[in-house]
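Hey team,

Filing this mostly as a record. A colleague (T.K.) asked me to run one chain through the structure pipeline before their review meeting, and I want the input and output archived in the tracker in case anyone asks later how it was produced. No errors, nothing strange. Just documentation.

Input sequence:
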Amino acid sequence: QVQLVESGGGWVQAGGSLRLSCAASGRTFRSYAMGWFRQAPGKERGFVATISWSGTSTYYADSVKARFTISRDNAKKTVYLQMNSLKPEDTAVYYCAATREGSSWSAGYWGQGTQVTVSS
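Output structure:
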């Protein structure tokens, strides 16, 4: 069992930065791939970035490449999403997720989400 709690969301002007954190509970955190997803009003939840259990492999949605960076600290059981050069279209609820390597995200664990609002 893994419980995930996101933090760090808030309001920021376009061009600004935010850093999201996701703290995990459970003894097997380092066994899980971690990801960030987001859901904007009226849209489906979509992929933002993922990171392998070791942290050596990362993947990003095209819309956030070169602006967002995902990282993890297995000793602290925490995954981060550094978001730079934010745009109004980045406004969404951001969710942290964990899943076993090779398993679908829908079968994994999800946090409650944190709101990010970017004003123009």
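Quick notes for T.K.: The mean pLDDT is 95. Residues 23 and 74 are 10 Å apart (CA to CA).
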